[in-house]
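A student in our group prepared the protein record below, which I am reviewing. I have pasted the whole thing underneath without changing anything:
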Amino acid sequence: MNRTGLIVALCLAVGVGLAFGFFPGLDLLVSRYFHGFVDANHNAFALRLYPPLMLARDIGLWVGTLLVAPAVGALLLKLILPRRKLLVSGRAILFLILTLALGPGVLVNGVLKEHWGRSRPIDVTQFGGTEHFVAWWDPRGDCPANCGFVSGDVAGAAWTIAPAALAPPAWRALAYGGALALGLGMAALRVMAGGHFLTDVVFAGIFTFLIVWIAHGLIYRWRYTRLTDANIEWALECLATPGYDLFVGLFRKRKTG
């Protein structure tokens, strides 16, 4: 999580944003190629129905869940047994859950996909749908909800860069490579399926990366905001102990009564 990654992400955002903003037909050009895959039942974007690709998407969706599961489990155990030491680093718990909630959760699925009315390729008139095509920067599309900008699947896959950032130094480059491969693979699957335009998947990855980069700085790197594991463990204990003591007191009172 250094400045090089940030510069690369910002340059990509500017380059893609300007190119596809001034020439929105580029999005149609990319999707038109995959629209040309038609199966025996005359379904366009037929790659979306190809079983191996469907399985690959399902597997990709589970990766993030598996990676965040230890942090969620450790947090729940701490809230249930507040005086027990955390099984996972407090900063790691905060970092992983916060970035997953803010990136794929709030920004992507809670805000953009529900309020940015850009239609998906499979729904626009150019590819046999009924909704009109708009450029990536235009929220005035016909889509009422769960829209194309940006891709939730790609945001979830791109989020895996967060656990990669916490990998031991000797394994970190490999972890980053795995996260990048997962993100690119999911992006390709969604474009091939007609579920998203190219800009939908590119900005899903960029937005998620920026949230991870900022959160990592706040929690780990920047002097005036970085936290310690002890700080977080103490805060969780203070939060959960009153409820735990109340529950134990009521249970003992009931048992003795």
Notes: The CA atoms of residues 218 and 225 lie 5 Å apart.
